[in-house]
Structures are given as structure tokens and as C-alpha cells.
User: What shape does this take?
Amino acid sequence: MKTNLDNKLVSWDDHIDRKYGKAGTPSREKYEEGFENFKIGVLIQEARKHQNLTQEELALKCGTTKNYISRIENNASDIRLSTLTRIIRDGLGGHLKLSLEL
Assistant: This one.
């Protein structure tokens, strides 16, 4: 474990290992999945704000509700890939790129 002895700082990786377990463990996998969902919500929120859109305006552009956009941005709702694609394409005018790591 990497620490700074003067102020006892712990690296981010070590902190995550302590709190959620080592990579590959069930608790760590659950944390990482939740974090990915959180990042999607943040990315949508940042893109929406960058385009000066309200949640309601984004919802109207992509055929969903303000409440649903809010739930996505606040990590309170799972999102279907087809809905995510529609929000990005129709609502934000963007393109979704995915990658797969094995």
C-alpha cells in the first residue's frame, strides 16, 4: 500500500480496494457497475448543460419525460440502451460509442 507517512494519505486505488475489495471480487464488481451508471448520468447532465437545455427540453427532444431525465442524471434509474441512444442522438445530437473490455 502506498502512503505518505507525513500526512498518511492513501492512494485512490488502495482506498477503493479497502472499501470495496480487490478487483474481480463480487463487491468490487457491484461498485464498478454502479459507478459506470453514475458516470452515464453525469455525462448526460454535462452535455445537456453545455447545450443550455433544461431537463424538460431534453425530454421533449427525445420523447421521454423530465422526471426520467432527472432520474438518469441522479443515478436513480437504470437506462435501456435504446433509450440512451435516443437521448444522445435525438436529444443531444451526438453519437454513442461503446467499448468492451474482456
The two ends are 26 Å apart (CA to CA). DSSP finds five helices and two strands in the chain. The longest strand covers residues 3-4. Residues 10-91 form a domain with the 434 Repressor (Amino-terminal Domain) fold (CATH 1.10.260.40).
